[in-house]
Amino acid sequence: MNATQYKVNGSGLGLRRSFLNEIVAQPVEDIDFFEVAPENWMNIGGKLGKQFRSMTEKFPFICHGLSLSIGSPDPLDEEFVKTLKTFMVDHQIQFYSEHLSYCSSDGHLYDLMPIPFTSEAVSYVADRIRRVQDILEQKIAIENVSYYAAPAQEMDEIDFFNAVITEADCDVLIDINNIYVNSVNHGYDAEAFLKAIPAQRIAYAHIAGHYVEAEDFLVDTHGADIIDPVWKLLGKAYELYGVFPTLLERDFNIPALEELVKEVKTIKAVQYSWGKQHDKQSA
Asked: Residue 214 needs a FRET pair 20 to 30 A away by CA distance; which of 135, 205, 221, 275 works?
């Protein structure tokens, strides 16, 4: 993709109710787009519904799903996808992404579970992604996820991820922190993983903080400030592929809005720096 093909541009922030009143009253210029979990907003009315409507009328939005459970053994929830489609049309939200994981098996598991890295799983998951795209009548983006075990592993994470993306013919939501966390926990080269991502499919990126349980065990919490190695990995991604839309995720231990905006500004600064370098190289 190039800049004109992205559904959003610049630097974004996940919208949370904890700062909704504040941001509705005084929008922040440094935030170019927002992301929401549609499950948290699809059936909201009253004051919250009106506030959300006022935001979607002013800013570009992306939907990032939590419950599609694309790798689940349970039947695909097509009614949810149809409701999602209506919600996106109603709020003029142009894009939807989900995790390459599952969160249900005869009931909700309340966590993102790893899909076995097998050829059988590739075909199964890719078929379900294609079905979602058929219903939505658009491509979706699939995110590389953090994982802490690899049951029945037949292939490396990056090979599994790329095989699913290719067979499903979908886009990529590249999560920079997940690459870093997994590289530490599973002992692989983060830059090598990054270089193997199908660049032409990148739709946007997530960046977030994590919790250090031990030197060789990180937990992807989205509940802390982003650390320098993750910022450097984002810069490497821009060096490799040019600047793409990037969103700050903060789902836990959420600080004041002004603190979040500082990290969004850091994203913007990294984008500006690498954008200038690419401009010089192409001049």
From this structure: 205
